[in-house]
Amino acid sequence: MQPKSLWVRQETVEVQEIIQKNKAVVERKEVSRPVAMQNAYVETADTVLNHLQVSAALGLDNADARRRMRRYGSNVISAAPPKSLASVLYDQLKSFIILLLVIAAGLSFLFGQWTEGAAIAAVIIINTAIGFITGLRAVRSMEALRRLSAAIAKVRRIGRIVEIPSKELVPGDIVIFDAGDIISADLRLIEASKLQCDESILTGESMPVLKHTDSLAADAVLPDRLNMAFQGTAVTSGSGEGVVVATAMSTELGRIATMVEYAESETTPLEKRLGHLSHQLVLATLVMAALIGIFGILGGKPPLLMVETAIALAVAAVPEGLPIVATLALARGMWRMARRNALIKRLPAVETLGATTVILTDKTGTLTENKMTVTRLVLSAGEIVATETGFEMNGREPEPETARALKAMLEVGVLCNNASLSPASSDGVQEKIIGDPMEGALLVAGRLAGLDRNFLIQSHPELREEAFDNETKMMATVHRQNGGCLVAVKGAPESVLAASNYIIEQDQEREVSNTDREAWLAKFANLASSGLRILAFAMKTVEDENESPYSNLTFLGLIGLEDPPRHDVGLAVERCKQAGMRVVMVTGDHAVTARQIATAVGIAGDDAPPVCEGKELGTITDLAAEQQERLLHIPIFARVSPRQKLDLISLYQSDGAIVAMTGDGVNDAPALRQADIGIAMGQRGSQVAREAADVVLQDDAFETIVMAVAQGRVIFANIRKFLLYLLSCNLSEILIVGLAALSGMPLPILPLQILYLNLVTDVFPALALGAGEGEINIMASPPRDTKEPLVPPRLWLWIGAYSTVITIATLAAFIAATELLELDPEASVSVAFLTLALSQLWHVFNMRDTGSGFFRNEITKNRYVWGALVLCIGLIAAAIYLPGLSGVLGLTPPPPDGWWLAIGLSALPFVIGQISKMDALSRPLG
């Protein structure tokens, strides 16, 4: 498998080429929406803010935002228009089945068979109507599912950071963003800390661009506008703030949208395979239908009758409705997943989910609650426990000296922070953390010590920020304090200790020795062994705000944050094991923490499971074959890099595994693209990760992944069920007419009757099977082999067996009605018609899985099946008793003994099918 590109959609190159080809046309296009501010990159940030009448510190108020929304409109890029009714109707009329029916109708009119010609025309109208309704429903389902995913932006409104849908952004909004976010409008940057953006979707440049806030020359071209951040681009590192200067179609991305009309094809590999199967069946059916027609004519039957019969058989045998039924099955499955917090972004993911064999999962937020709470704090004076109301040391309040050291550390944690707390509202909405849960937990702990971030920022204004860096594993903010500058630092304990030259002890600073560092690392290991997430804190005061923040620091202490395992993860992991799937933890956290959580949720056993750390892995592709084989059996990988995640996925894939990978950060995007199923976290995940993923978990829960896999299996099993049902019913019709033509006996069923049955018994039961919810034990079997054909040999055997039994029952009913009951030809044909129709209806119950209950199974619990049966029985009765329709179809009400004969023999396929379900060698269809 080729690695998938990072963050950039595959159509980027094509879009760029189209833009160049149509450049002259593009230059003539006008943006319909009003432009907030052109050439903002030329002006200083203050000039832009004044022009837009907004304060960077306060942002807009809600009333002003509403006024601007009315003026500029919603921040939405115009998409391709929804598929029209006319186009959906045209898709039905251009199908092969309609062409065959038109030929049959034309021949009927040519030979003077006006009634039959009109009847076939009616069939064309009915068939087109059914296809149109189901096709329209499938199209609208896909369009509705695309609308479920809405981007969120962090903005400053009335001085407070809030989250709003990106479509509500207006010119003048102050947007706050950091690594992993997708820019939601064109911004003039007013703050930038190590800010880099991937602008390849606009410029084609493959490398991220380093941003700044200085003004630029008026002739700066788009790739050189380094003080701007553009809609649709990804923040790859650093953080920043910007003021919205253009939204919707006024943005650079909007300008591209005005020149390029692009609509994503929703054709999935499964639908392509179904189309290929249909084409194969068309070829085989045409040959068989032609032979039946020729032998019938040679046997003395009327030529027109045999031509119409051959065409009717071709129409009946070709399952042209398969793509529609498949799309509806996929759409319904996606709706089920969406209702249970799994948003499927790409249709192919649905069919791949059911074949997943390995799940590589992150720890934080997926296996754990992601409800960070500060529980333990370690200072030089000792360990402090955080409670709901305050802090305790040895069961009582800390001594004043210790309390001062504690407050100094918490102050650093509150200042060196990008999260905010939204207050609880009067209508019962609880306080919400906006931003990283870990940073939010630090704000909550600081509030217990009487520290409020808003007041602290007023007394210690932030001058600049050094964004968290994966190489340094630290973050720093610089604040004005007493004529100098306070540098607040937090990060990984080993990194902060290495950057610290001093330590606070009994209100005094002293130099850190190697013994001190070893002692603090031991304290860190002790906390981590309890499953806590550990942060270290340090500070210093400097004169120059531009001085390097990561040197000569004073170490303050450690804070342990608890993130307990989710209560339902253990059961979900056990379900994965029962389903033949391996769950492997791949985390950036420490080995001791990873082992503790993995053991608690059942990923690894209690006997010190092996953990492989990133430093041991090195470059996986350089390892020997036996070393790579050993990695395939390790349940926990800790402290791994993004590159190592990518290599692990490739290693599993080369071993034949279908890999699902979870991720949340910007650095997870390559792995999410590389995996067969990329799964992003909807709550804590970055926008870049969500863009790269195939599935977005709106609740970040591992249980939701297991549910989605089960739904993927159900969908594929449903598709195989209606394939088995349709093909066995259609093949039986071919065999009935073919055997009659070859043997020289009268036709047991006539062309219009075949067409009528094709409309009745094929369409509605097949749609009902596609909507089934599946068996509850769908996860009790191993994943399917993705190399297995859509219709494997064992399924063809079942199709042949079922169609043979239906054929025998129908021919036996026709012969018995003619010879034993001595009915006239029309009545005998009616008995054969009823036998075939009813046997196909009862046949739907043969689609249950082997081992499922006779009375309670996935078929009997499917309310759509019962609705389809009632409808079909009504339509069959109408074909027999409704004046006009019965005459056109050539049917007449049979006598009571004819009814009993039809009912009795139609039960034969059902009885034999149910007996076959007792065969222990049978396997579920999915």
SSE diagram, text form:
Layout: H1 12-21, H2 23-28, H3 45-51, H4 62-72, H5 85-93, H6 96-110, H7 114-146, E1 152-157, E2 160-165, E3 174-178, E4 186-198, H8 200-203, E5 209-210, E6 228-229, E7 234-246, H9 252-259, H10 269-298, H11 303-317, H12 322-339, E8 342-344, H13 348-353, E9 358-361, E10 373-379, E11 382-386, E12 391-392, H14 400-415, E13 420-422, E14 432-434, H15 437-448, H16 453-459, E15 462-469, E16 474-481, E17 484-491, H17 493-499, E18 500-505, E19 508-511, H18 514-528, E20 533-542, E21 553-562, H19 569-578, E22 582-586, H20 591-601, E23 611-613, H21 614-617, H22 625-631, E24 636-638, H23 642-654, E25 659-663, H24 669-674, E26 677-681, H25 687-692, E27 695-697, H26 702-743, H27 751-770, H28 793-820, H29 825-843, H30 863-881, H31 885-889, H32 896-916
Helix pairs in contact: 5-7, 6-7, 6-11, 7-12, 7-27, 10-11, 10-12, 10-26, 11-26, 11-27, 12-26, 14-15, 17-18, 26-27, 26-28, 27-29, 27-30, 28-29, 28-32, 29-30, 29-32
